[in-house]
Each structure stands twice: as C-alpha cells, then as structure tokens.
Amino acid sequence: TPLGRARSLPQSFLLKCLEQVRKIQADGAELQERLCAAHKLCHPEELVLLGHSLGIPQAPLSSCSSQSLQLTSCLNQLHSGLFLYQGLLQALAGISPELAPTLDTLQLDVTDFAYNIWLQMEDLGVAPAVQPTQGTTPTFTSAFQRRAGGVLVASKLQSFLELAYRVLRYLAEP
Amino acid sequence: QCGHILLSAPIVRLGDQVTASCIINQNCSHLGTEWRIVWKLEPELHPRERQQRLPNGTLQSTITLPHLNHSRVLLSCCLHWGNSLQILDQAELQAGYPPTAPHNLSCLMNLTTNSLICQWEPGPNTHLSTSFTLKSFKSQDKCQTQKDSIPDCVPEDGQRCCSIPRKHLQLYQNMSIWVQARNALGTSISPKLCLAPMDVVKLEPPTLWALEPSPAMAPPQPGCLRLRWETWKPSLYIEQKCELRHQPRLGEAGWDLVSALPARTPQYELCGLLPSTAYTLQMRCTRWRLPGHWSEWSPSLELTTTQR
Amino acid sequence: QCGHILLSAPIVRLGDQVTASCIINQNCSHLGTEWRIVWKLEPELHPRERQQRLPNGTLQSTITLPHLNHSRVLLSCCLHWGNSLQILDQAELQAGYPPTAPHNLSCLMNLTTNSLICQWEPGPNTHLSTSFTLKSFKSQDKCQTQKDSIPDCVPEDGQRCCSIPRKHLQLYQNMSIWVQARNALGTSISPKLCLAPMDVVKLEPPTLWALEPSPAMAPPQPGCLRLRWETWKPSLYIEQKCELRHQPRLGEAGWDLVSALPARTPQYELCGLLPSTAYTLQMRCTRWRLPGHWSEWSPSLELTTTQR
C-alpha cells in the first residue's frame, strides 16, 4: 500500500519538508506582496491571457492526491515540479533591483527543497537514473513580462505547495 | 506577444501632453473578435481615447493626456475576457522637470582627511532621478584654460557633497570646480568656482589654556589674566593670525575683541579687565598673509581676574 | 650595493638560533682598506661575531644569536667612515610560534542577515602575522565525504568570526566547517563541526502581551493572568515550542516554569498565582521536533493578578 512505503520516509525528512514548504510559501508571499505594492500586479487572474502567451506551465501533483497516493511517483512529481519552478524563477532574473533579493531567496529555498527530495529518493533507491534537465522556459522580453511572469509563477508555486503541504502532513501523521 | 503599449515618450515635462497607444495584434485572434481595449491608469485619470481596427486586423487604442500633472502614472492596457479584465501590458509614465543649476557651491580643504570637500544645494525637486557630479580641472591661470583634467567626483546616493582625494589635487594651484546635474530631461551646471585648495583650508579652532601661576613669575596684576594658546596641530606649518574675544561671564556686556594676535604665544597677559570678575574667553585663527577661512571660535575658557 | 645582510632565516621560532652575515664587497674599495663592520641591533643584543676577509677582497662579518627571545630585532650593518657610522644595509628578524589549533568554533544561522555566522578563539599569541580562514564543504552524509566545495570565508582584519552568505549554503543538508590558522612558521586547523544550518538557527525571543480585558470575556479569576504571545516574525515558518517563566516581582521567590507551550496562542490563562500580586513574566522558544537552539528569554512583562 502507498502508506506502507510511507513508513520508509524518516519523520525528520517529513518535518524538514513541511518546514521548507512553509518557508517557501513565506518567500513567495513576500514576492507577491512586493509585486502588488510596486507595480499594482496583484491578481494572477488578470494575467491569464498573458500567461498563455508566455507559456508558463503548471507542475502536476496528480500522484500526491490523498485519494490515489503513489509515494514514489508523488516524490518524483514533487521533485520535478520544484525543479521546473527553480528554472522559471531563474528565467525571471533581472525582474527589478528591489525584487532581486526576494527572488534570489525564493529560488535558493526551492533549489534546496528540490535537492532534499532528490537525496531522499536516492536513499530510497527510487531516484530516476538521470537528474531532470530544464525544458524550454519562457523568455520574458520586457520588464513588465518579468513582473507579470513573477506574479504567475509565484501564484502557481503557492498552489503547488498547498498540495505538497497536504500530502506531506498526511505522510507525517503518526 | 498579444498586446503592447507604445508611449510618445516615457519621460516628459510636467504639464506636457502625452499619448499612449496599445496595439493588440492578430496573435490574440484566438480571443474571438468583439472585444474592446480597456485602459487602467494609476492614479486614475480620464484621458481622451480613440480605438480603431487597422487593415491588418490589429486593434489600436490611443489615449491622450493633454497636461500630465502627475510625476508617476502606471498605464495598464487590458481586455475584457470572459468575466475578467486581462492585463496585456504595462508601462510607467514619468513626468518632472529638467534640473535647475545647482547653487551655493562651496569647498573646504580638510587637512584631516586630506581631501577637498565640496557641497552644494540641488535646487527644486525635479521629480525625476537626477544625478549630480562634481567636475573640476587644474588650471595654471585664473581657470580660463584647463591644464590637467581631474576625474569626476560622484557623490554617494542622495548626498549633496563630494570629496576629491589629495592625489588629484595641486594644493597651491588654481582649479576650476562646478557641479553638473543631469536627468532624463536635461542637464544643468552650477556657477564655476576658481580656487587653490590651500586657500580654502578648514582650520580647527586653536586651544586656549590658563597660565599656571609659578614662583618664577610675579602674580598677575588685578584686572589682568595670563593665558597661552596654540593653533590646531595639523596646521602648525601654516602662518596664521588669531583673534581673542572676551566678556564677563555674567551681565549683559558683549564681546570685546583683541585682534592680530600671533599664532602661538607661550605667555600672554590680557589686561584692562574688571578685577575679581569671571570672564569667558574664546579664540579663532585664520591663515594669514595668504588667503584662508577663519576657524570656528574655540571652546570657552573660564578665568577670573584677581582682587584689587 | 656596497654591503648587504644575509639572514639564515627571516622568521624563526622564539628561542631558536639565528645567524646573520654582512658582506662588504670590493665596490667599497674606494673607502680605503682598514675598516671594520659594526653591527647595530635594536633591541640591543650582544651576539658572537666573526669577521673575515675573503680571498676575493670582500669582508664578511657573521653574528650568531644562539637563542632569539625577541619577536622583533632590527639588524643594521654599518661601517666607520670618517667620524660617522655609515649604515650600509638593514634587515628585520622576526621570531614567534606556529599557530595552535583555533578552538571553541561555534556557528549560528542568522535569519535576519540570511547567513551562517561562525566564531572561534584563536589561541595564544604567535607574535607573527597569522591569518585565519573559515573553511567548509557540503556533504550528503555525516560530513565524511565532500559533495560540493564552499568558497573560503576570510574574516575582516583581526576579526574572530566570519559570515557565509546564503547562496553558498544548503540549509537542510550537513556541512563540515573548520578554521585554519596559518603564519610563516606553520598551519593548524580547528576541530571540525558537522551541522545543517537550519539546525543552528538563532531565534530571537517571542513577544509577550497582556490580554486586554474585553466585554466579550469574563474577568480573569483571582490569582490568574491572561496573556498572549507570538514567536519572532521571521521564524513563523519554523515549528517551535516555548517556555514561560514567572516570579513575583518582589520577594525572594525564584522562577516558576511552564514548559511545552505552543508557538503562538491568541489567549492563555496562567493560574495558581497569588492574588493581587505583581508578577514578572518571560518567555523563550526553540525549534521543536527538529533540532534548534533556545532563544534568549524575552523582555519581561509586568502584570498584576486581580484581588480575591
């Protein structure tokens, strides 16, 4: 059963993951607040059209839903999703001098979290043979696109983390 | 990209007219046909607007702000899509003034930091990011002609002063100095100073001491005070003259002045004062026979004259 | 050059033997023939000396300091010339110790500066210029094997601490950290630490507030206090447990402790206290279920319990 394998996940790993999710959510919220305050870009719903044209993907977590939890595939999706957002955040570089520190912290924390999951998958012997490589990330051609991209990426990352948090807490339950 | 904004100019003078166009090209054709461009302005303004569909199918909306009187306006070009307003592009309009000439430029040669420190007043707010640069050159005459250049002195952010290090200075030769202010709308320069750094030395005040009574000396006369002083140590090599001012500590009497005093005296007797009266004394000095600025007055020395 | 000094070694261990030679070559033949080398040492020492004229006409004087017990000696090789003593060359001898291993290395993760700050104690004075470097590497295990390197952290002059910026850290993975001390006589390294930055987070204390009485709530029981608290804002994402200590403001009673309290509570009633008594309360928190350090105790909150 999926839960059987969950017992193989160390409690400290799950607790660290939960803390990292909360930390990244806090980083992400700060980026969203700053984008709203500085550039009046406060609602991702206003940027759906632009998101389509920029091609900002949403990372799937289908194997992590509580109804059909498959642990190995869920860990893999968690890692791939974080890896995708790491690349998207990197593509936002040059967003603006004021936002750069917040963006850097967010990207470092996402990279750390992805790395921890990868190590755990290796420990469980379920890590894919080859580390994933960044697919084609959107190119942002103007300051506005980088800021709008920032709003979209942050909001997609927050919903991704919401799902991740739920499954991690479920797995961490004694 | 689905839509983008073009500005007549991103930065204009306050009060000038500005036009902005938003062009929605065919890339947005997947959105169907019947939609209108909606502008969102922050702060809220209500410009004249003209929408037209161009032959090649693109939709263009142009707004005109006859007199822009906000220094910052955030323009968003949007489209109704489903029941949401979609932002397609954003642009920031800035308005302000070209810089006026900086004024009250003054410089002092600081013997402690060994640098020429100049300060100025920037003039009224231009509402735009304005950079100030202290420019100068060495001259062999009265600053009519440039002999050697001196690197620009760029002040720290927001500072209204700049410090030219010793290695760029010839202390006893004239140099021409001025401040340049520059922003997106123009450049202006301050009136030029022509000075030799040593002629604008900032002297710290001298130090005043009471002269301790000693057996070798007869006690001071009633109504007299014995004191000595020494100019500020780093300026010992500079020939100076000094002034002493004194007034009774209590009462309304103003300062009495003793001028043309030498730079240092091992022993000086100040007489003609009221006996057994507490006096406050201060001294200042200036570079003398060569040009220079007076130092501030020294801290007060409190002395009391002997009884009759 | 007329004469020059050769040292057996410019830097030696305190107490070691040192020899220095001064060689006057024929270039000085214009000085006539009968002169002697005279050594001047600062501080004054009286080494054994041997002068000899070599076949090729050069004159060599060698001095031996059997046990050098000064950390600095200035050697001057001189010649009598006319009635003056001419200095021909100078050399500085340094003596000291190789560095002992730095000790008491400790690190804290600072969430405000987002950096890992490590400090250490250098050990006894070596009398020589000694540089300290904080070295570290990332590890996937218990620091037995290095995964990725981390750039050396060089402290500011004389500082006994160094700060590794966030971009070089993996907050949840182990890293090996040590200090290397190096001077002319040797190198030594401190014992190695193995830690994950998040496990050594420096938490600022929580904030304690009195709960304002409100119509919606019944007044507190006699001998009870109502309060609330919140952990330090930058650490909100860290799961923590807290401890509350309280003691009557007056009198000799020690602290009473309430432990295992949650990280934040909108409302908490502390009972079992003396009625109408002024109490001092403090709280501290620590990262919990995951490793961490206790914060300092919060500033005191002064509250008085209601009468009976």
TrEMBL record, chain A:
Similarity remark: Belongs to the IL-6 superfamily.
This protein's UniProt keywords: Cytokine, Disulfide bond, Glycoprotein, Growth factor, Secreted, Signal
Species for this entry: Moschus moschiferus (Siberian musk deer)
Gene: CSF3
Covalent S-S links between cysteines: C36-C42, C64-C74
PROSITE patterns: INTERLEUKIN_6
Presence of the UniProt keyword Glycoprotein in the record: yes
One example of a Gene Ontology biological process annotation: immune response
Keyword field contains Calcium: no
Any single Gene Ontology cellular-component annotation: endocytic vesicle lumen
Single GO MF descriptor: growth factor activity
Protein name: Granulocyte colony-stimulating factor
General function of this protein: Granulocyte/macrophage colony-stimulating factors are cytokines that act in hematopoiesis by controlling the production, differentiation, and function of 2 related white cell populations of the blood, the granulocytes and the monocytes-macrophages. This CSF induces granulocytes.
Compartment annotation: Secreted
